[in-house]
Amino acid sequence: MSIIADYKRSLKHVEVEEILDLYLYRPLAFALVKAVYRTNITPNQLTVFSMFIGILGGISFGFGHRSAVILGAVLYGVCIVFDCADGQLARLKKNGTRMGRILDGMIDYVVSLSIYLGIGLGLAPESGQPEEAWWLLVAAAGLSNIFHSVTLDYYRNRFIDYVLGSSSHVKDEDYESFKEELDALKAHKGKNLRKAAIGMYLWYLNLQKKLTFQWTSAKPVKKFNEEELSRKNKAALRGWTFLGSTTGGTLLIVSTLLGRIDFYFWGLIVVGNLWTAVMFVIQNRIDHNLAEEAAS
């Protein structure tokens, strides 16, 4: 099998990938995957290693001086590559696990928290702003980042579920299976880490639904014609992917290297949230039209 064919097999689905992932981070991650493919290294080990690299990046930001901040940005870029590599290795080896999926998502937020704390602590003296205003800016960017990630995850997984026919965590039966597992675990002592992980994961899924259902007519999606859903959502989904963590992470890296971290903050808070509002309007119109067609 050719390298290109192997690379395509390592992807989730081209339609749901971020542009920068397809043409930068995932090719780099694929080279890493090929290097470790015949070893005993597991996808979960790559996931945990990416977390440590990301945390080191946050610590580097926390030192505040120019060379440490640049190192933090570079480490964060390496973290993104490893974060891509875990899923690609799992898909090529067909050894991904349900807990691995939860672990991957949780670690993304651990890394983001460490990066934001590092930026907040390390760059506050250089910001030229009162400390309270600086931390308010950091918090607003962080909350915007979470909002963008949650929303993108929902629409990406909805597309995978109902158009591409694969299983992600949006489907009710998958949600219920995790809930049943958590209930079964609660009936016995031990496995507290697994209980906590599944509990947080279910909370996250509920948050996704609340945020997206509040803004769009996403609930009747199962009634939509799959062919029409695919045709009308491909372009919209590409728009959603610009809110992805890789795009935001790249903006952070570039802003850091330019010595203008404020570009990253205002990019998320102003441009990112305006783009989200536009996408909600577009998505709501698409869903409304599909629902009308399904009812006719």
Under CATH at level 1, the class stands as: Mainly Alpha
Structural class: mainly alpha
Shape: globular
Q: Tell me the radius of gyration.
A: 20 Å
Biggest sheet, open or closed, and with what strands and sense? none
CATH architecture: Up-down Bundle
Continuous helix count: 11
First-to-last CA distance: 46 Å
| CATH H level, superfamily name | CDP-alcohol phosphotransferase transmembrane (TM) domain
Question: Which regions have little confidence, pLDDT < 50, spanning 5+ residues?
Answer: 215-221
Give the SSE string: HHHHHHHHHHH
Compute the average pLDDT.
84
CATH fold node name:
Four Helix Bundle (Hemerythrin (Met), subunit A)
Relative helix content: over 70%
Number of domains in the coordinates?
1
User: Strand percentage, roughly?
Assistant: under 5%
Number of strands: 0
